[in-house]
Amino acid sequence: MNILLAVLLLPLLALAQSSSSSGNAPSGSSSGSSQPPASSSSSAPASTAFTTIVSTAISSIPTIIVSGGNRVETTIVSTSVFSTVEAITTGGSGSSSNASTSSSSSTSSSPLPTAPTNVNGGGQGGAPFPGASGANGAFGPDDGTFMSALDSPEVKRPKMIKTIGTHNGTFHCDEALAVFMLRQTSTYRDAQLKRTRDPAVLATCDIVVDVGAVYDESKQLFDHHQRGFTEVFGHGFETKLSSAGLVYKHFGQEIIANRVQLPVSDSKVNVLWLKVYKVVIIVCLDVSSQLKLSAKEFIEAIDAIDNGISQYPTDIKPRYRNRTDLSSRVGALNPWWNQSTDAQTVDGLFEKASALTGQEFLGKLDYYANAWLPARDLLIASVSASKKAVDPSGKIILFEQFLPWKEHLFELEADESVADIQPGQAIYVIYPDETAGNWRVQAVPLTPESFESRKALPEVWRGLRDEELSKASGIDGGIFIHASGFIGGNKTKEGALKIAQKALEM
Ligand SMILES: *[C@@H]1O[C@H](CO)[C@@H](O)[C@H](O)[C@H]1NC(C)=O
Ligand SMILES: *[C@@H]1O[C@H](CO)[C@@H](O)[C@H](O)[C@H]1NC(C)=O
Ligand SMILES: *[C@@H]1O[C@H](CO)[C@@H](O)[C@H](O)[C@H]1NC(C)=O
Ligand SMILES: *[C@@H]1O[C@H](CO)[C@@H](O)[C@H](O)[C@H]1NC(C)=O
């Protein structure tokens, strides 16, 4: 065994030395360096050589490890060493077609084992220590890779690639998204996938979703098909969960925190976690019922479909079935009746489906994180500013720019931690109508979906336009007041404000 390891170590040390001899001391230097990074084309021939050396070394590793017993697999080991070589050539940019095409099917693009950047690589004279980090990535496997190999016959691998198990055959939206989401966690990032119904194979997986008839987080088993399964998301959501809902319930906060780069404990992560659970994916009916249906939201909709729960209140019948929603699009990726259903083909299609659900999921998450949530902050700021400058009672809120305010307002009114926004306080909001260059006064509705207002604009002004309105209201420049009194317009901000102020007194 020691001989084999020596065979492995020597070429790697030689490799590290040759890369350092062509540049500056590897640690520290970054953008200011005049030396091209390791990924420049000039180093390409050398990197090809490295690949050859290391893959020779790799092939000896499985011999060592398999003798250690348990469920270690040779492909996994060869992958992690191979990825290291990739970092040398590409500067650690993550995935590369090289790694995935020339290694086994279990190859991953997982981040490399990198040493801390403060390790002194040796510079001019000596070779960098194994694991030393250059400006552009690691020079070699970190010390732990070697040390653990030397330490114990069982070989602890610091970056073992995990395996997710799910069922084979026809796939659905829920496990496709579940697998995608798991791969957004630090534990299962770049995990490989086994699609099977064979319990013996599933037992070798690190986590199993949508198959196995067990839900037990402590064992990382997440099926929802078994009799007696009743798990719901909670927080006001009572729909039974699909495997996507289950994974989202347990891993969603981490996934969101990773994506938005905030600590899991940040309250924004929690807000997004609840929000994305509800995001709309089904918009299938004509415009009039669309508003009602939009209360059904993303994962909840997936859960509902997967559990066979009707998405529609029973008295509303869809005129036609929308075949472009996410579940339908995932379903359509399954093999056609006359296409091959061999495991390799279907597994490939599943990966496509998983990527599709992931794109949709991250798209929604990004929208809620980067557009929806900032609007919430702006609303809070506008309420404070309006209390100072417009209306101390908080009944009129002025937005200097349009923003989606309604849903936030109701949620913030219900949130006791936001002292500035009291339930029922806001009566009118004023905002610019960017397309027409006018300003609008909108009456706050009783509920987000209601057409009834807390205090509609005065009856005597309703249905009037222009001159007529200016005369009736005594406010020049009036544009219109809607017949139902929920919205009105004026050419200027001041005019709109006057409408609101006057309406409050009537
Ligand atoms: C691997 O990378 C090298 C250098 O970047 C490139 O020339 C070669 O075509 C790649 N091989 C594969 C199989 O992608
Ligand atoms: C699923 O996998 C099992 C074994 O794991 C196999 O017997 C079965 O034929 C596969 N089913 C489909 C539909 O591919
Ligand atoms: C069908 O639903 C999708 C998303 O769920 C939506 O984007 C699309 O506009 C809908 N199509 C029709 C015709 O309603
Ligand atoms: C499936 O059947 C249709 C109709 O016969 C044919 O046009 C199509 O090429 C077939 N597809 C495959 C993959 O065999």
Automatic annotation (TrEMBL):
<protein>
    <recommendedName>
        <fullName>Metal-dependent protein hydrolase</fullName>
    </recommendedName>
</protein>
<keyword id="KW-0732">Signal</keyword>
<dbReference type="GO" id="GO:0005634">
    <property type="term" value="C:nucleus"/>
</dbReference>
<feature type="compositionally biased region" description="Low complexity">
    <location>
        <begin position="95"/>
        <end position="110"/>
    </location>
</feature>
<dbReference type="GO" id="GO:0005737">
    <property type="term" value="C:cytoplasm"/>
</dbReference>
<comment type="similarity">
    <text>Belongs to the MYG1 family.</text>
</comment>
<feature type="region of interest" description="Disordered">
    <location>
        <begin position="21"/>
        <end position="45"/>
    </location>
</feature>
<dbReference type="InterPro" id="IPR003226">
    <property type="entry name" value="MYG1_exonuclease"/>
</dbReference>
<feature type="region of interest" description="Disordered">
    <location>
        <begin position="89"/>
        <end position="150"/>
    </location>
</feature>
<feature type="compositionally biased region" description="Low complexity">
    <location>
        <begin position="129"/>
        <end position="140"/>
    </location>
</feature>
<dbReference type="Pfam" id="PF03690">
    <property type="entry name" value="MYG1_exonuc"/>
</dbReference>
<feature type="signal peptide">
    <location>
        <begin position="1"/>
        <end position="16"/>
    </location>
</feature>
